[in-house]
C-alpha cells in the first residue's frame, strides 16, 4: 500500500507561501502529512513537490520518503496526481492512498481506516465526513492509468470519482479527523 502526498502548490491564496513549508507544531506541514500516511500503513510514501521544491527539501526532513518534483505544478493538482502515479508505477504497490499537504486535521487514524477498506487492485475508497466524500482517497493499481488520463487542473480525480460513485466505498472518518483545508490567511489559525 503506497502513499502519495500532493505537496506542490504555491499557496496563491496565501500570498505565495507554499503550503508544504507552513509551520505546524514547529515543523513544516509536509512532514506531518507524510508521517500520517506512513503511520497509517503506507509504504513507500512518495511526495510530489513543486513550488519552492529546493526550499522544501532543504528545510523539511524527508529522508524517510521518496520525492519528486512536478515542473508543471502551477497548472493544478491534476498534474501532481499524474506525476505521483507515474513515479509509483514501478513500485509494485497494489494500491495508493492519496492525501493533500494542506489538511493537517487528517492524520494516521483516517489513513488506516481507508487502508483497511482495500479489497483488491480495483478498489476505490474514500474517507467520508458526515457522508460526504473527502481525503484521503485510495485507488487500486488497476485504476491508476484511467485516473491519470482524466486528472486535470485543480480537480485531480474528482471527475473520475463522480463517474464511478456506484463502486466507491465511503469510510466514515469524522470521529477521527477533520477535513479542513489551509487555503487562505484566515485558515492559518488552525495551525499549531
Automatic annotation (TrEMBL):
Pfam families: NTP_transf_3 (PF12804)
CDD domains: GT_2_like_f
UniProt xrefs under InterPro entries: MobA-like_NTP_Trfase, Nucleotide-diphossugar_trans
GO MF, one example: nucleotidyltransferase activity
MobA-like NTP transferase domain location: 3-166
Protein name, as recorded: Nucleotidyltransferase family protein
Organism whose genome encodes this protein: Streptomyces platensis
Lineage: Bacteria, Bacillati, Actinomycetota, Actinomycetes, Kitasatosporales
Amino acid at each position: 500500500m503506497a502513499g502519495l502526498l500532493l505537496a506542490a502548490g504555491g499557496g496563491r491564496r496565501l500570498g505565495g507561501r507554499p503550503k508544504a513549508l507552513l509551520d505546524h507544531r514547529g515543523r513544516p506541514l509536509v512532514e506531518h502529512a507524510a508521517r500520517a500516511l506512513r503511520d497509517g500503513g503506507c509504504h513507500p510514501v512518495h511526495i510530489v513537490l513543486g513550488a519552492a521544491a529546493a526550499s522544501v527539501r532543504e528545510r523539511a526532513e524527508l529522508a524517510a520518503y521518496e520525492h519528486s518534483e512536478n515542473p508543471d505544478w502551477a497548472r493544478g493538482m491534476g498534474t501532481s496526481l499524474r506525476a505521483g502515479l507515474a513515479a509509483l508505477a514501478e513500485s509494485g504497490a497494489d494500491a495508493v492512498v492519496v492525501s493533500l499537504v494542506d489538511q493537517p486535521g487528517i492524520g494516521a487514524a483516517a489513513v488506516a481506516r481507508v487502508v483497511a477498506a482495500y479489497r483488491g487492485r480495483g478498489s476505490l475508497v474514500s474517507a467520508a465526513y458526515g457522508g460526504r466524500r473527502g481525503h484521503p482517497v485510495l485507488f487500486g493499481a488497476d485504476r491508476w492509468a484511467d485516473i491519470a488520463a482524466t486528472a486535470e487542473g485543480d480537480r485531480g480525480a474528482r471527475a473520475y470519482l463522480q463517474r464511478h460513485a456506484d463502486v466507491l466505498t465511503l469510510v466514515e472518518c469524522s470521529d477521527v479527523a477533520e477535513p479542513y483545508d489551509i487555503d487562505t490567511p484566515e485558515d492559518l489559525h488552525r495551525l499549531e
